[in-house]
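Spend some time on this chain, tokens included, and walk me through the fold:

. . .
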Amino acid sequence: MNDQTVEDRVRSGLATLAGPQAGRDQAWRALQRARADAERRRGRRTVWLAAAAVLVVVLAAGGAVRWLAIPGPDTASPAAHQWISEWPARGDLTGDGALIDRATALWRSDAPAALRPAGRVTTLYAGREANHGTTVVMLLAQDADRALVGMVTSMENLSGPPEPSNDLVLRAVAPIDAHTVIRSVGFVTSALPADRPGDMAGSLGFVLLAPGVDAGEVRSSMIDSVMTDNDQLSPAVDGLVRYEGFPGSGAWNSWVLTPAGTAGRDVLAGGITDPTYQPGTADLDGRVRADNGAALHAGDLVVARDDRPAGNGLLGVVTSTSDNGGQIDPTLANLARWNLRVVSVSSDYRGALSRDSAGRLVFTTDDPAAPNGVSRVAVQTDDGKVTVNVGAFSDPDHPGRSNTKSPFPLKQSDTLSATGPTPVWIIATGSA
């Protein structure tokens, strides 16, 4: 009998017990904690049961004590990899049943219907983030083909003490193929207004690394113009990684970096209130289509889908649609028509994009302070929910300098591939 068979029997047995759902959830969490303790004692082996032939689970149901006997595995051996269902519960608040129950209830009530947990919910992480004291809860629900990870945190207040843990908000839900081994799961979302008073607005993210992955960071093309993937990674406490970025940054221009050689897939979800985005492909002639055949809308942003510093550049805006996709304008002209503003990322100078007589992309601004420096330019929706990289300052007559007069020549971050379809993100802006 292998470990997965034992897990399946445990799940099946708990599902047959009478009594309140909350009681059965509590028993399942107790089993998770026992397993996590066993794994820590045995060097992170995937051990569901000790050497004993029988595991006894105590469940209070209607005043009676129920006993569930589960046959033990024949042997206990280290796993070659771990499915997410095998991850131990981590964090300093895994024993706080009331917190986990509140987070679970919030997920069930606030998520879109398709992203709500249908059955049992178990804990992946519950704890306080080390540097800011934010309470973070990550929960797992799984059926035969799909897993969902619900991610809940307390509200943040960077201008004062941490908010109480009972002030929780559902940040994101990440769907995962149940048959895929992953090395991290998390989210990047534009922070809710209550999180950031005044000029502290920005994006927020948390990522949980797989057991055994002890360092990692979230990187974004919006802030990583000087970073490389060879930079030293920060250690993670209990596997949790925190991220802060520019306003409007999201999962479409962020990725997770883990130590070289780490196997598995990274799953990074957008915020539950973020604009919708989906993968697609674009051709050199400007035709774009969603990978799943979904309808596109005029005003949707088409962004290169790549994970590299200063990447994820804007390729164009959908100007017209048909049954099998849409057409984009790669010149990046007339962006104001789609309620898009052009800004300098680090300085927030407003301006416009155009092409000069040589066909180069240039950023023009009348802001009198602009000559003090323009390093990178982005396009942003009027509501500030989406920011997309366009290009970096590039003047062949003044290499390495970021202070000259408008118009500022730009090196465009991405363009449509001439050798084949370009992988893209299609971001709905609602500006049609």
In short: Helices lie at 3-16, 21-41, 97-110. The longest strand covers residues 168-177.
